[in-house]
Amino acid sequence: MSRKPTDTPPGESPKQPASRSEAAKLADFMCFSIYSANLAYSRVYKPVLEQLGVTYPQYITIIALWEEDRQTVKSLSDKLFLEPSTMTPMLQRLEAMGYVTRMRDHEDERVVRVALTEAGRQLREKGLGFGELTVAASGLPPDEFRVLQKAVARLRDNLQKAAKGEA
């Protein structure tokens, strides 16, 4: 049995497949595994988010602000891997829903800071138990789930560095 390019040990050059039938299949691509896992994860999260009345980007924004309130739009967009041009309309919607307030920074009027309202804090509290649902849905024991989460985060960080030419 020949090895597929995705199975090449570190330090070895990938062997070219001898035929089209030996070429890597869709299921052999890490990027597809991550992409399709994200879609499956979203399906598990969907009822939770519907119950909370927010989208996933809105929910992770609430979590990020709960961890560190009064962040700048720029710091939030960096933390959440979203463009500032995406953040602004989303923050406007969250503000209209009563979950956040946006204000100009006192020291630099060009900077906009975002803070959770009491309703935003209550939304975060309401969503706290839902993490257990996703761990259970994964079919992994909690300790394996944490190991996998850390490995995926390390993969993401390494890919970010490579995309910036830092790898």
TrEMBL record:
Listed InterPro entries? HTH_MarR-typ, MarR/SlyA-like, Transc_reg_Sar_Rot_HTH, WH-like_DNA-bd_sf, WH_DNA-bd_sf
Stretches the record annotates as Disordered? 1-20
Localization terms from the record: Cytoplasm
Q: Which GO terms describe its molecular function?
A: DNA binding
Principal location listed in the UniProt entry: cytoplasm
**Gene3D superfamilies given for it?**
Winged helix-like DNA-binding domain superfamily/Winged helix DNA-binding domain (1.10.10.10)
| HTH marR-type domain sequence ranges | 27-157
Q: Domain of life here? A: Bacteria
- The keyword Transport is annotated on this UniProt entry: no
Q: Which SUPFAM superfamilies match?
A: Winged helix' DNA-binding domain
Q: Give the UniProt keywords, A-Z.
A: Cytoplasm, DNA-binding, Transcription, Transcription regulation
Has the keyword DNA-binding been applied to this entry? yes
Question: Matching PANTHER family, A to Z?
Answer: ORGANIC HYDROPEROXIDE RESISTANCE TRANSCRIPTIONAL REGULATOR, TRANSCRIPTIONAL REGULATOR, MARR FAMILY
Name of this protein: DNA-binding MarR family transcriptional regulator
Q: Which organism is it from?
A: Azospirillum rugosum
Task: Give the classification, highest ranks.
Answer: Bacteria, Pseudomonadati, Pseudomonadota, Alphaproteobacteria, Rhodospirillales
